[in-house]
Amino acid sequence: MKHPDDSNNDKDLFARLEADLAADFGGDVVDLDKARTARTASADADTDRPDSADAASAGSHPDRSADLGPDASDDAKPVLADSPAVSGPGYLDRIKGSKRIPVVPVWLTSRAEFTDASKWIGGHIWHTVWFHAFRSPLYVGKFALRTPAGFARTVARVLRWSIDAEGEPLRQAEARRENSELYLKLSRQRDRRVRLRVALTLISGLGSLGVALYLAFGASPLTQFLAAMLAVGTFGYLGAPADAPISSRAVVKTEVQKLTSDMVVKAMASIGIGQIANAVAKGQEGIKFVAPITREGPGWRADIDLPLGVTVADVADRRARLASALRRPLGCVWPDPDPNEHEGRLVLWVGDRDLSKTGAVKWGLANAKRHDIFARIPFGIDPRGRAQYVPLIQHNVLIGSLPGQGKTSSIRVLACGAAMDPTVEMWLHENKGTGDLDALECISHRFVSGIDDESVKYAADSLKLLRVEVMRRAAAIKALPRDLCPDKRITRQIADKKSLKLRPLLAIFDECQNLFAHPEYGKQAGEDAEFIIKLGRALGVILVLATQRPDKESLPTGISGNVSIRFCLKVAGQVENDMILGTSAYKNGVRATQFRPEIDAGNGYLAGATALPVVVRTAYLDDPATDAIAQRALALRKAEGTLSGHALGEDAERAAGPSYDLLADIAAVVPTTEERVWNERIAARLAELRPEVYAGWKGETVTSAIKPYGIRTRDIAGTTDDGTRTTRRGITRADLTTAITERDGKKGAA
Ligand SMILES: Nc1ncnc2c1ncn2[C@@H]1O[C@H](COP(=O)(O)OP(=O)(O)OP(=O)(O)O)[C@@H](O)[C@H]1O
Fold first, then answer.
1. How far apart are the CA of 618 and the centre of ligand 1, in A?
2. What is this model's ipTM?
3. Could you tell me which residue ranges the FtsK domain spans (predicted)?
4. What is the pTM of this model?
C-alpha cells in the first residue's frame, strides 16, 4: 500500500535521482517522465509482493537514499553494500581522507630535534677528545715500553726481506718435488734479489746509523726531542701486541639490532594472540605492515595493521611478552595506537635504550632567566627523546600514581615553570608534610605544608577563597571592553595590567586525597574544586591536583571528569588508570599500569597536552636545583614588585582572600527588618556598596558566592520594582545571621 505522503517523497526521490544521474552520466538528459512511469508500474507490480511496502518506504526514506544504486528508480529495494553498483567513497573523498607524508623529513623541520642531534654529536666528539687527552701521558708510557720490541721487529723484518726469506718455502717445495729446472730458476732469482736487497739494506743501515749519530751528538735538543718522539711513536706502534691496542675506548657503543619485519612478525606471533599465531603457523604473516619499518628518533618504528578483531589494547596488554619476544628490555618497547586510524592500527616503536635508563632528564628551563606562563612549560622527554611540554594557561592538571613514583617531582617541574614568570601568583599546598615544595615558600602568596587538620583546613580555605576569586574574575572580565578582551579570557596583555588584578594564579594541591577525603572539609573542598575547574580556566586560575589514591572518595568524579591535562605515573589497576587518564583510557591501550614500580619512577602517560596521550619521562629537579630556581624567581618578583601574601609575611587569612568580607557586606545591605530578599537585589546593592569588587554581579553570582558558607538559596515571593508579584531565588536574613555566627564562632575557636 502506498503512504499518502508517498507522492511528495517520490518527488524528492526523483529530484535526487535526477541529480545523481546527471552526476553519474556526465549530465546526460534523462527522460524523467519515462522513469516515473516505469517506477509507478513497478510499484504497482510490487504491491503483490509481501515486502513491497517496506521496500517502497525504504526507497522513500531520506536516510536510505544512500543505499540506492543508480538504477534504483526501477525498484526501491535496498541494494546490498557489496553489490558492484555500490562503489563507496569517490576518488576525491578518498584522497581527502588520506595522510600526506611530509616532503621534508621531520628531523630537518624540527628545530628541537635538529638541535638535540647536533648536541649529541658535539658532545660525543668533545668527550672522545678530552678522554684521550687526559690519558695521553699513559699512552706515551705505553709507546716507550713497546719501543724496543717494535725496533727488534722492524730489524727482523728488514733482514728477512733482504735475504728473500718469503721465497724460501717455495724453493723448498720445488726441491722436494725434485723439479730442478724451476728450483734453479728460483735460486737464481733469489741470488739476484739478495745481492740488490743486501746492498740497499747496508746503504740505508749506514745512512740510518749516520742520522742516529748526528741526532745523538750533533742535532739541537728540539730536533732530538722530535726525532725521539717520532721513533718512540713509530716503534711503539709497531711493537704493540695485536690484542692490546694503545688506547682504550672513549665510549662503548650499544649495538642494537636493526628491527626487521621478520623479527616483528615472529614476536607478534609469540605473544599469545590466536589470530596472528595461527596465520604464522600456516606460513602467512598474520599482520600487515602499512609502511616500511623506519628509523624514528633513537629507535625503530613499525606501522602495523593487526588482524581483524585484534586491537592495540590486546597488544599493549602483552607488552612484556612482546619485549621478551623482541629480546629487548621492557622500557624499549612501546606499542601505541594511532588515533587517526582504526582500532587495529598499531604503531610499534622499539627504542635503542630503556627509557628508565635515561637517567635524570635535564629540565629545559634549568638555566633560563625567566619564562612566560602563556608559553608551554618544558615537562620532560618522550621515549623518542623529544622534548614534551605542558600548557598551563587555559588548563587544569591532574596527576596520580602509586606512592613514590614521581608525582611530587612532576609537580615541582610545573611549579618551577610557573615560578619563572614573576606575574604568576603561587598558592602552594602540600598535604603530605614532607616539605617537598618548601623551596618555593619564599615566593608563595599562600603556602602550607602539613597533614594535620589545620593544614588541611588551610587548603580547604584556599579553595573557598579561590571560588570567590573565580567569581570576582568572571565579573571583572565581563566588564572589560570587547576590544581588550574579545574572547572573554585572560591574555598576556590583560594579565600585565596590574590595576585589573587578573594575573595568572597557579594553585597546587599535592596529596589532595588528604583534603578531599577529610571528614569535615572534604565535601565542600571537592565542590569548590569542581567549581574552580569548570570556571577558572578562562580566568587565569590554574588548578594542579596530585593524588596517590585515585578513587571516588579521594577524588570527586566532578574533578576527574573535568580536568583537561592528565599525567598518570605507575598505578595499580584499570580503575585508577581511568580515574586519572579519563574513561576508556585503559580500554584504548593507554595504560599506566605497565610501568614498573620504582624502576619507572618519573615515567608516565601525559594526556591532554598533545593530540595523543604520550609516555613522558619528566625532568628531575632535586632540592638544590629547586632552591636555585626559587631564588631566581624570588629575585624576579622583587624586581617587579609582585611578591604578595605569605611571601611578605602578611596575615595568611587576610592576605589570601579578597580584602572584603562578603557576609558582612551582605549583612550591611540587607536591613534586619528585611526578612527575605532576592539575590538579584543583593547583587545590585553590593555593586553599589563596593563597585570595585562587586560590579557586574548578578543573582546567580551571589548564589554561588554564598554557597560555601552554607546559606541556602530558596524561592522567595516578592514584588518587582514595577509592582508585579512574583517568585525569585533569594535568601532569608535568618540564614545569613546563622552563617555569620557559625563562621565567627569557628574563627574564635581556632
Ligand atoms: N623524573 C624523574 N627522574 C628520575 N627519578 C625520579 C623522577 N621522578 C621521581 N624520581 C625518583 O622517585 C622518587 C620519588 O619521587 P616523588 O617523591 O616525586 O614520588 P611521589 O609519587 O611524590 O611519592 P609520594 O606519593 O610518596 O609522595 C624520587 O626520590 C626519585 O628518586
1. 10
2. 0.96
3. 376-578
4. 0.59
